[in-house]
Amino acid sequence: MRILAVIAALAALALIGATLLPEAVQYRWELTIGALAAGAVALLSIFGIRGGGGGTPEAPKPAIAEAAKPAPLPVARNQAEAEVVSFLALLQEKGRLVDFLMDDITPYADAQVGAAARVVHEGCRAVLLEHLGMMPVREEREGATVTVEASASADEYRLTGRIAGQAPFTGRLVHRGWRTEHVKLPRVLRPDEDRLPTIAPAEIELS
Amino acid sequence: MTFRYSLGIDLGTTNSAIAITDLETDRTETVEVTQILGPNRIGEKPTLPSALYLPHGDEFPGNALALPWHDGEKATAIVGHFARDHGALVPDRLVTSAKSWLSNPHIDPKQKTLPWKSGDGVEKLSPFECSRRYLEHLREGFLYAERLQGRDWDLAEGQIVLTVPASFDEIARTLTAEAAEAAGLGKVTLLEEPLAAFYAWTAQTGKEWRSQVSPGDIVLVCDVGGGTADFSLIAISERDGDLDLERISVGEHILLGGDNMDLALAYTLRAKIEAEGRSLDAWQFLSLIHSAAAAKIALFEDPKLAEAPIAVPSRGSSLLAGTISTRLDRATLEQVVLDGFFPITRADQLPKQARGAGLQEFGLPYASDPAVSKHLARFLTRSLTNVRASEALSALVDDARVAGDLLMPSAVLFNGGVFRSDAIRGRVLDLLAAWDGKAVRELEGFEPDLAVAKGASFYGRNRVTGKGIRIKAGAARSYYIGLETSMLAVPGFRPPVKALCVVPQGMEEGTGTLIEDQEFGLVVGQPADFRFFSSEVRSGDVAGQILPDAEKELEETSQLEVSLPAVDDLPAGQPVPVRLNAVVTELGTLELWMQHTRSDRRWKVEFQVRTE
Description:
The complex is a heterodimer of chains A (207) and B (612). Chain A has six helices and five strands. With 207 residues, chain A is mainly alpha-helical. In chain A, helix 1 packs antiparallel against helix 2. Chain B has a nine-stranded antiparallel beta sheet with strand order 23-27-28-29-26-24-21-22-25. In chain B, strands 1, 2, 3, 6, 10 and 11 form a six-stranded mixed beta sheet that branches. A five-stranded mixed beta sheet of chain B has the order 14-13-12-19-20. Chain B is globular. Chain A binds chain B through residues 62, 64-65, 67-70, 86, 89, 93, 96, 99-100, 102-103, 105, 108, 111-116, 118-120, 122, 184-191, 197, 203, and chain B through 37-38, 40-44, 61-64, 66, 68, 147-150, 152, 291, 294, 309-311, 313, 315, 317-321, 323-325.
């Protein structure tokens, strides 16, 4: 799980970086979506790690909330994996993310990719905004000179270039970063602990 | 009993919501409703879509649709987001707009009729039962959500306010209150939705609202929700140096709202897509409706945007091959939504009448004229008729507020999702200005988001604490009992039915009238039926007054039925003299009683919905 998170996060960064290259203009749609998708996978993996430790991804905050739960659900087997699959199912349901990624993209013209990207963008964005309080790590415009205080959390910043001396560090904001203050996901009920939830059901129309 | 909180429930035609005011902290907040978001998936959303889905026994395995308060029993019907979204693809098993069926004069709301016109093998529910289930879900959802926050409320300690459309007649109001009681909410207080919106505005602006209105103002509450349009007029006057507010007119039940606009846009876009030689299946069309709605919001929110892209995904898994793209441009949007639904029409252009034309395709009397402008003109025309019918109301209205046949508002409070758009609000203000010859202002500082639930909760708080304002409302209509005229039979001529006014318009909550002059003879053991009529425009009629021709001047609402049980001192077969006693309860429902002239005994008259 952790390895997946790292790989996906790297892939996300690589793709975001690639969109900035001038020769990538014609592929910008694919790259942006790819970045989004890889970012989402990274996100999922992170939840997986969290969920594995604490049961449900909604870490119960104050003690009263925990006491108020009528009957705390026992942590099921594979619960962390089930939560990840369930979040992926949400991205698929609202934004068709899995359909988009599992299709062979090579034969299609940019216009078709662009049209499909709109579906993915609209749906997945809505999921992120609804279920994760999305906000940038830094509010400043990219390119501005910013200062990283000594008290800053290490996971919120990645320093590159010539790193020397003591914090605070001052440098150019290359990427504003993303973070979330709350995660509010639907709760997954698991009638059968041996199976992971389905990502997308096969649809059959009866006539 | 002391109340600890006030609970406002907005039982909407398309979406429901709840808000609570903690009387200790005096804070009002909305409560997110726990609901089924998919098989084995539950979560909280700010609103509960008023949609009910009846799953097939084998459709979802085990307890895939169980809610936390279900204790493991298998759900026979589900309510909310998943019900609405999944049900759209299985229309035979989906119930929507149950609320509008409550006020449908052609269907008995307690008969199992929904889903309307569904196929064999689907168990049906009555409109009443559907409303009960929505309310039950809201009740359980409220208690559950609050328990999760560590608060354990007792329903008996809450002042519960349930909103109803201003256009609901007494029958529909009574049914709603009954459904709430059957859902375990106890005796609820009813509040008209446009008034709830006004209360929400006073709560949101604090003291500031008093500076935005002044004596002589007539405020139009213009509420266009997803499925219905509801209008009310509130007159502002002054008494002992304080502002006095009275609701002086309510509109008819108009089944026309934002959903019609999204559908109209989707039809326009589908025609464009089909003209390009591509086709959409039913599922894609549903998706197109959602996308069209989103594009509409985007264009209305950003006036600089010339067009908004729309992508309709494929039904199958190949998104890249099957996605259909098109664009919604501003000209089309304005033509369809602004000119189609809010055209600048003349004050004397009223909607095409389709009332009484029998059952339409979906069984609900959907407005046949989509122009909200014309419905508004009709409302303002009827309002003037109503105000002129009584001296008390006429005294509240300055002559300057009369323009031709219309009673013109001087200010407007907009409510409902449709009016989030500046362009639509602006168009309505332009329309009113065109009719009035001068500008009509918009009341400021209103946040329409879930305002009806918040306003209901705030009204409950005012009721309990005695703080804040109360808008004088009372009965929105006058009510009449039909009296058969006794005259010689003439072939080909039906004697007119006279009407006895039993409830005058404006009769206040917690008051009653006894009709002294009219005695009825009821026979023990035999049910007696009466015809029951109402009017929205006869504010001058007083209790006991007799109108010569009920069918010509009034609208028939329902039948009344009363039967006297056999009692020892009332001999069977003999008529018992009774007088009619009408009561508007503190909670806002109407009760009719037959009062024995020689004792304190009385019998309740039940509403029977007319079915044909």
